[in-house]
Amino acid sequence: MLPRDHIHRIRYFTALVSARPSDPQQPQRQQLYLRALGTLPNVSVHLGHYLTSTVRMPLAHPLANGPLTVAVLKTEEKGSDVNLATYLLLDAFRHDCDAAVVISNDSDLAEPIRVAEVELGIKVGIVNPHPANRRSRALHSTFFKQLRPNALATSQFAAQLTDQRGTFHKPPRWN
Description:
The protein has helices at 26-37, 80-93, 110-119, 149-153, and strands at 10-15, 43-58, 69-78, 99-103, 123-128, 143-146, 160-163, 166-169. The protein is an alpha/beta fold.
C-alpha cells in the first residue's frame, strides 16, 4: 500500500479462543482486542471457530519398549480461511475494490487469490506475518511484503480506548 492508496474496508478474520491451563486469560485479552477493533469505523470482524479433538501422534523420540504414539489435543481454526476467501471473491465480484491486501501465509488461499487476480482483475498483495524463512511458496500475488516488526510497533492501539460501553485499557500483551 502506498500513501496515495485509500483503505475502504478492513476485514479481520479470527475465531474465539478458549481458556487453557497455560493461559487462562487469553479469551479476555482477545475480547479486549476485538473491542478495540470495534473502535475503528472501517473494520468488520468475521468469526470462524476452533475445533479441538484428541488424536494420536507419533513421538519424536520414543523410549525403548515405550509407546510409539501419545494422545494429544489438536486444536484447529476452522472457517476463518474460508471466510477470508469468500469475502475476497465477493468484494472482487462486486467490483468493491481495486486491490486487496491479504495478511496471511496460508497456502489454502492460493486459488482464491489467483481467481481474484486473474479471473476478476483485481490486484492482490500478500503480507506475510511470519518470519521470511516460513513464507509459503504456494502464494503468488501482484505484490508481496514481509511484515516488519517495526511496522507492528508503530501500528499499536493507544493504551486507553473508549467505545460506547466506556473506557478500557490495552493489556500488557494481546496474544
